Amino acid sequence: MNLHEQLGALEVGVDQLIQAVVAPQAQNIPETRNESTPQQAAAEHAAAAVGNALAAEDEAAASEATGNEAAAKPAEPAALPTLEINRPAQNEITMTIGGQTVALRPEQIGQLIEELSNARASMTPEPPPGIPPGWRFVSTKNPVMAVQKQSNGDRLLVMRHTGHGWVPFTFSPDMVIQLYMMLTKG
Predict the structure, then answer these.
(1) Would you tell me the crossing angle of helices 3-26 and 38-64 to the nearest 10 degrees?
(2) Is there a contact between 48 and 150 (Cβ–Cβ < 8 Å)?
(3) How many other C-beta atoms lie within 10 A of the C-beta of residue 11?
């Protein structure tokens, strides 16, 4: 499994884990009307759940402490959960994070890839400018494409990759010419 598949699987798994934590707690939370999306609401409920869990741990630690000396000791950092990714069937990936396993279907994997891609686009450092040695990838031969002219003269090219889904690129007029020359160079 290549890195892109692993990252794609990770995001959907995280969403499912959040939903697994949020769903039981959502039954105890009164409904409120707000303008947030279901994803924002799930994230807010997950954050509240994490906050409640941390508060409960702090209370338990304080009640177990006997005297000032025990209470003054710093808490040991918790071990980070590990991530395991398996592929039990062609159309399924399972992810285990901190002992919680979730099965991901193709549409969930696609959603995870899209979310991670959008997040990665805003992160630094950027991906390397050249192709890294040993990089593994799946190539899509003759992908389905769509082109749209933008008001500023740029061209939007959207190509459908079998693993990444629809991938958009915007080219300035100069880059369109360079691309044409690269593709027709014999």
Answers:
(1) 70
(2) no
(3) 22
Using CA atoms, how far apart are residues 109 and 7, in angstroms rounded to an integer?
A: 9
- Note whether residue 133 is domain-resident: no
Tokens representing 148 are 């749209």
Query: Residue 102 is encoded by which pair of tokens?
Result: 């979730």
Higher pLDDT, 152 or 98: 152
Give the per-residue pLDDT at 141.
97
Residue 136 lies in a domain: no
Q: What is the DSSP letter of 130?
A: S
Residue 47 has pLDDT above 60, yes or no: no
Report the C-alpha gap between 26 and 45 in whole angstroms: 7
In a 13 Å sphere around the CA of 22, the CA atoms on its Cβ side amount to: 17
Tokens 């991530």 locate to 83
Task: Choose one of 121, 136, 171: the last residue of a domain.
Answer: 121
Q: Which domain holds residue 174?
A: 145-184
Decide: 150 and 170 in contact? Cβ < 8 Å. yes
Residue 79: its pLDDT value, please? 82
Q: Which of 60, 95, 92 is nearest to 75 (CA)?
A: 60
Nearest-5° angle of CA 5, CA 6, CA 11? 100
User: In this model, does residue 153 exceed pLDDT 60?
Assistant: yes
Looking at the 3D structure of the chain, how many domains does it have? 2
